[in-house]
Amino acid sequence: MSAAIYTHRACLAHDPGPGHPESSARLAAVLETLGDPAFSALARVEAPIATREQLARVHAQELIDSVLQDPIESGWRRIDPDTVMSPVSAEAALRAAGAVCAAVDSAIGGEHERAFCAVRPPGHHATRDTAMGFCLFNSVAVGAAHAIVAHGLSRVAIVDFDVHHGNGTQDIFWSDPRVLYASSHQWPLYPGTGARSETGAGNIVNAPLRPGSGSAEFRAACEAMLLPAVERFAPELVMISAGFDAHRLDPLANLNFTADDYAWITGRLVEIAGRHAQGRVVSSLEGGYSLTALRESVAAHLAALTA
Ligand SMILES: [Zn+2]
Predict the structure, then answer these.
(1) Rounded to whole angstroms, how far apart are CA atoms 84 and 216?
(2) Nearest 10 degrees: Cα torsion 80, 86, 90, 94
(3) Given 125, 146, 165, 301, the catalytic residue
């Protein structure tokens, strides 16, 4: 088994403004964790820039243009109250989506069957035509479409355990049976989508969790809904929207996951990938706003991903 970490300094430099929870300190904490000798065998790859062609498979031209045009000389440009761009943000978003596409290329090409993309901004709230919720481009969705269009895959599973529902990923693949989108998330919570009744073309599986839910509720929902759906789908590639904000220490939500929960779900997904997807798993960082929780959760996730 060979695994790689994709990242880029532009992702570290992206700055949504003072006091913003999606700070560069998050990625710094993740990179510090990835520097642990336990992960020294993992290949390190500089994330390339996603092409317009790759982005346009899942995003409207107007969204791509609004993120990429009119470079910001200094200061910030506010997309919505939560979503703010600094001068390097467009490159960071391109590198984040490019990282996932490169990881998909490598997984399918047989070079590194597992990958973790240590990138920001996150992506799963970005819909086909709207950047929102700290997200500019939907990196995991761009990668899934890349696997389908560029590599001819017909079944890609995206599992999203971020505490927020990935409304963007659901929106993009709502009527596309080539992608299974399976999400656990706190509900009600931002962005308000993710009810169990939202099933798309039968390819969307939502497991909303009540505030206060912890390991037991999460694992029960996975065993009852998410994992059987992924298993039945028999994906040729497993992708993970890896947000760690359902951790009990996270300041933005009210679930009580532990680092061990992330190791557990990751291990289960690696098993499914081993049965159906030639072991191919591509994971990309989404949310996670407690630095302590991020450090221990990423370490647990990576250890299980590369076991
Ligand atoms: Zn989140």
Answers:
(1) 36
(2) -100
(3) 125
